[in-house]
Write a structure and sequence with these properties.
The complex is a heterodimer of chains A (247) and B (90). Chain A is an all-alpha fold and 247 residues long. Chain A has one domain. Chain A is built from nine helices and no strands. The model of chain A has no long low-confidence stretch (mean pLDDT 89). Chain B is mainly alpha-helical. The chains are: A mainly alpha (247), B mainly alpha (90).
């Protein structure tokens, strides 16, 4: 596997490879998201208790789980960059942070808009909400560190350490609804075995989730390519490429 | 189809504000993220291209200067040669 993976540590090859898969990601994301959102808004049955406010679920849950998923991905990249000093891992971590921050913000806002009609409050300092807010601050800290130093290697190192320290927050978010008595409900979808919702509510969720995941992949790809270009701007292959594009 | 009319759809069973707030804000944030990422990509390419142009210009200027210097030197040498040769003649 290492032999197969090895060429992808070369920025030029990774740049061209991501350029090839990027359109597929974006097309699939567009298709799945349009099916998923239309299904969620128009065809999914209303919840028997929550009525149509339940439709926020199709944004809130994918955004929240992706915000954690992106963080785990970023932490993996941070570990690789610290241990093996892979420059590309640094670039990918820098590409992931803003996307993760946006999804965390979406999870918080949609959560507030769902909490107001259901719980009667926009915000409450309960374990799930507070730990998710801390996740947002962790993302903002990582972004700030990436931009705080002129030297990208140094910036990457600092951001990687913060990322790895912050990993402790992920299991706290995940299990907060079980460890503490919270207002937030327990897991509905990500349980082992059967999800506790009917299939005609579950399928649109699958489309939405995969659509958002592919959208994340698309945006991370674009940002990753930007980071590669910025970090390799003196290399001959970048010079050739830029000359070709800009004429 | 869960809704009988367009009005019922926009009303969202009385939860219109919360549902459309969620969908609206999410769409705005994602669209902004997507296009800012694209714009960043273009900006970096432009920046690198500009620097390259500047470097090329500097290189050309240096070349020109070099040639001029050489020419000047040659001219001086020639002058010297002519002077010395004329001195020799006299």
């Amino acid at each position: 596997m290492w032999k197969w993976l090895h060429p992808y540590a070369k920025p030029e090859i990774t740049y061209h490879f991501t350029g090839k898969i990027l359109p597929w990601f974006s097309y699939l994301a567009t298709i799945l998201l349009s099916i998923g959102i239309v299904w969620a808004l128009l065809f999914a049955p209303a919840d028997y208790q929550q009525g149509d406010s339940f439709r926020i679920f199709y944004l809130h849950v994918p955004a929240a789980s992706l915000s954690m998923g992106i963080y785990v991905g970023m932490a993996t990249a941070a570990l690789c960059s610290l241990v093996w000093q892979l420059k590309l891992a640094d670039a990918s971590a820098a590409a992931m942070a803003p996307v993760g921050a946006t999804f965390t913000l979406i999870a918080l806002i949609t959560g507030a808009a769902w909490g107001k009609p259901m719980w009667g409050t926009w915000w409450i300092w309960d374990a799930r909400l507070t730990s998710e807010l801390i996740l947002l601050f962790l993302y903002l800290g990582v972004i700030a560190l990436h931009n705080a130093f002129e030297d990208k290697t140094l910036a990457g190192k600092a951001a990687a350490i913060l990322t790895l320290v912050g990993v402790i927050n992920i299991p706290i978010i995940k299990y907060s609804v079980e460890w503490w008595n919270t207002l937030h409900q327990g897991a509905t979808v990500s349980k082992l075995g059967k999800p506790s919702m009917t299939m005609d509510m579950f399928w649109p969720f699958v489309f939405c989730f995969l659509g958002f995941a592919l959208l994340v992949a698309t945006i991370i790809c674009i940002r990753f390519r930007t980071e590669i270009l910025a970090r390799n701007s003196m290399r001959p292959w970048v010079r050739e490429l830029v000359e070709k594009v800009e004429g | 189809m869960q809704f009988d009319s367009i009005n019922a759809f926009f009303n969202m069973g009385g939860y219109a504000f919360y549902v459309w707030l969620s969908y609206g804000v999410s769409t705005c944030l994602l669209v902004a993220l997507f296009f800012s990422s694209k714009a960043n990509n273009q900006k970096i390419i432009k920046k690198i291209a500009q620097r390259q142009k500047r470097e090329n210009k500097l290189r050309q200027a240096a070349k020109l200067q070099n040639e001029q210097n050489k020419q000047n030197k040659q001219n001086k040498q020639n002058e010297k040669n002519t002077i010395t040769s004329s001195e020799e003649k006299s």
